[in-house]
Write a structure and sequence with these properties.
Layout (H helix, E strand, L loop, with lengths): L7 H15 L6 H8 L13 H27 L3 H12 L5 H11 L3 H22 L6 H17 L13 H12 L5
Helix pairs in contact: 1-2, 1-3, 1-5, 3-4, 3-6, 4-6, 5-6, 6-7, 7-8
């Protein structure tokens, strides 16, 4: 009886872990095989080349970080403000955030990845606009609030500033979210 093959999903998951840890240059077949404890020959049973793996990694990231999050938020329903918050929490979870940040960095140097990131961000922004429009009537303000919400979610990871009295950033992020999601009606 032969040794079972390493599942395709494990190659993709390991590729995403490598991407999060070291960027696209860290996604190397030999390194992935070593991390999985297998030979690289099994890789070529699933993927024609590294480029195919990278595309499938981006497919998985897009599905998990946008489509699945949006579907989950919609299926759970609830107050639109809570739905916006939940989408942000799920999208930028401990599991997905490192991949998201790595994709954003990669997109700075790769036009194809930048197009993919734009598509994902547009899906996320569409949900934020939809939810914010339930309590805000002005289309320009809806857009501004959605932009601020998204920038807060992404940008706070890059901000190195401290806050008065050594108070935790999370306290101010929550306050900022409350301001952004303040009801107008």
């Amino acid at each position: 009886m032969g040794v079972p093959r390493t599942p395709r999903e494990r190659w993709i998951d390991q590729g995403l872990a490598a991407l999060a840890a070291g960027g696209p240059q860290a996604v190397r077949v030999e390194a992935l095989a070593k991390a999985l404890g297998v030979t690289k020959g099994g890789f070529y049973g699933y993927f024609a080349d590294r480029e195919q793996l990278l595309e499938e990694m981006l497919d998985r990231w897009e599905r998990r970080a946008a489509d699945e999050v949006i579907n989950q938020v919609r299926s759970e329903g609830g107050d639109p403000k809570d739905m916006v918050r939940r989408a942000g929490q799920l999208t930028l979870s401990e599991e997905l955030l490192p991949i998201d940040l790595a994709v954003r960095d990669w997109a700075r140097r790769d036009k194809g990845v930048a197009r993919r990131l734009r598509r994902v961000d547009n899906k996320r922004m569409a949900l934020a606009r939809e939810m914010i429009s339930t309590f805000c009537d002005d289309p320009d303000e809806i857009e501004a609030r959605a932009l601020l919400a998204f920038c807060l979610a992404i940008g706070h990871h890059f901000l190195a500033a401290t806050h008065p009295g050594g108070r935790p950033r999370a306290e101010f992020r929550l306050r900022a979210a409350d301001i952004i999601l303040k009801q107008d009606r």
